[in-house]
Predict the structure.
Amino acid sequence: MNLLQETKFLTDGYKHAEGYVIATELTCSIFTEILELTEATSVFEIGFNYGHSAFTWLSLNDELKLASIDIGRYKHTHINATKLEEKFGDRFKFTAQNSRHAKPSDLVGYDLFWIDGDHSNHGLSADLNLGNAAESKYILIDDYCNGIKNTNLGVGRLITLVEHYLAKDDFPYTFVKVYNYDCNSGKNPMALLKRDDA
């Protein structure tokens, strides 16, 4: 499936071009694989922006439900959230909220936790801690290549923040797969994690 034409309304008329998913055949096949692998019927998304990823998830599965939160700093975020609410009805719910104010109970009942919000180490750490506290079965992390220096390795080598978390005893997740989907600036990596006791 290729949803490129269907997503044009999300960016038409806007000059700003912050990163977003391009719903090419490759991207759609990756998102479909993730939905099949996780058997997800519901997704909780942090980071709506233009709404491309939410639109793609919902278009690929007519029964999927998706809740999205976004800090809502851009006008297009609110406009496009309303458009998706009109298109997908009760399958889509949007809340203007900083994810740092979200509670683990907000994630209960969702099969897949998709993190695509604050990509700083501090922001991603907060979202990973949220998913862990909610005992999310699957966590999907966009832009997972953000690096930190790990001096515990003796040479201060650069590792991803995700690798740092996976090495922690109180973060019981394992890498499932890394995907490289199409975005408006080229290829973008995301990592799928599965909770060990799920």
User: Anything to note?
Assistant: The radius of gyration is 16 Å. Helices lie at 25-38, 52-60, 75-88, 121-133, 161-166. Strands lie at 42-46, 65-70, 92-96, 112-115, 138-142, 147-150, 157-160, 173-183, 186-195. The chain has a mean pLDDT of 90.
